[in-house]
Amino acid sequence: MARVLITGISGQDGAFLARQLLARGDEVWGTYRRGAERTFSRPTALGIHEQLRYALVDMAEAGNLIRTLDRIQPDAIYHLAAQSFVGDSFEQPTYTFDVNATGTARLLDAVRTVTPRARVYQASTSEMFGDVRGEAVLDEDGAFRPRSPYAISKLAAHHLVGVHRDAYGLFGCRGILFNHESELRGTEFVTRKITRAVGAVARDEPGVLALGNLDARRDWGYAPEYVDAMIRMMTQDTPDDYVIATGRAASVREFATLAFAAIGVTLAWSGRDADEVAHDAATGALRVRVDPTFWRPAEVGWLRGDASKAARQLGWTATTALESLVRRMVEHDVRTPTASSLSP
Ligand code: F7E
User: Fold this and answer.
1) Phi and psi of 233, rounded to 5°?
2) 125 among known catalytic residues
3) Is there a contact between 176 and 126 (Cβ–Cβ < 8 Å)?
4) How many C-beta neighbours within 10 Å does residue 112 have?
5) Which residue's alpha carbon is nearest to atom 10 within ligand 1?
6) Comparing C-alpha atoms, which of 184, 203, 221, 223 is closest to residue 332?
7) Residue 266 bears catalytic tag
8) 179 lines ligand 1 (CB under 6 A)
């Protein structure tokens, strides 16, 4: 049994990771920040809220981090806490840097001082690849050309973990995770925005799904499988870096088409750029339109990962196909009415 600290327990990955660690028999602590929702809806939804221990931690407070590590004395730290929405990072670049980059520097310095033998998992991201040339399939040697304040902040954190590994012998693993989704995904991310909208359409709620860049292609996997990869990295004898991905890229347009198909609606696409729309091919009802306010100032157009190193060394491969992922999320959102995600 290990004592494990997860920074960012309130997020999708924190909840799934905690569930898997608890199932292994670990003692699991999670950090949450002031202002984060205190209902812990995701741990509650997974039925693990009562088994977790919580610590109020802000990545902006070095002393807070030091005292928390001193009190908990974790064997392993999964560092997931972040400002994780790429779109917002353009409007809040310094906040994004403070939490994601400087926050990681504070955590690593605290680990070095208080619990130098604790293993550290760093939530690195495919966004670091950024401006991908051609339709490259990206592995651990791919060039990093970040395209957002978020990506730059995560790349800085990625390199900081590398430096602590080389300079101080930190057991630091860097998981370069491509997009991973689930029914617990935050509603601001495009996949959940789409599946919630499809749920609303299935319930005959009025309105249209308004999206940004329909051409963006992402490599979308199922989040519980991705947190399993994190644990596999952290329980190796040697710390290392791994790309975690499915190997398939699909566009936002394809994701929306699959999501509507899951409720029996065939979308017919027409128009271009800001005028592109999708109608229900059977009834003619307008279902999707483009809203340029969701376009990002700089976009990552293509991300597709090669996880063969993880397959070789960790025995990990993605097993949930995109179609199954979409169906699972849509079925959940059809069953679970929420405030409408449709636009007029
Ligand atoms: O956007 C396009 C958008 O916000 C995906 C985070 O977990 O994964 C996530 O980052 C794509 C982008 O995720 C809308 O422009 C079109 O090209 O779902 P997203 P993301 O930016 O890929 C990586 C791996 C992380 O590390 C991040 O933390 O979809 N898109 N229309 C839209 N995106 C949003 N959010 N909303 C739209 O209406």
Assistant:
1) -60, -45
2) yes
3) yes
4) 15
5) 86
6) 184
7) no
8) yes
Query: Any catalytic annotation for residue 226?
Result: no
Q: Which of 31, 26, 124, 110 is nearest to 76 (CA)?
A: 26
CA–CA gap between residue 99 and residue 60 (Å, rounded): 6
Which one of 214, 252, 276, 302 would you pick to mutate in the ligand 1 pocket, going by the greatest count of ligand atoms within 8 A of its CB?
252
76-100: average pLDDT: 98
pLDDT digits (tens, 9 = 90+) for 81-91: 999 999 999 99
Write the Ramachandran bin of 315: left for phi over 0, alpha for psi from -120 to 50, otherwise beta. left
Assess whether pLDDT exceeds 90 at residue 60. Answer: yes
**How do residues 300-321 score in pLDDT, each as one tens digit?**
999 999 999 999 999 999 999 9
| C-alpha torsion sign, points 310, 312, 313, 314 | positive
Total-model pTM: 0.97
What is the token pair recorded at 97? 């840097």
Check pocket membership of 119 for ligand 1, CB cut-off 6 A.
Answer: no
Mutating to test ligand 1, I would choose from 189, 246, 255 the residue with most ligand atoms within 8 A of its C-beta, which is 189
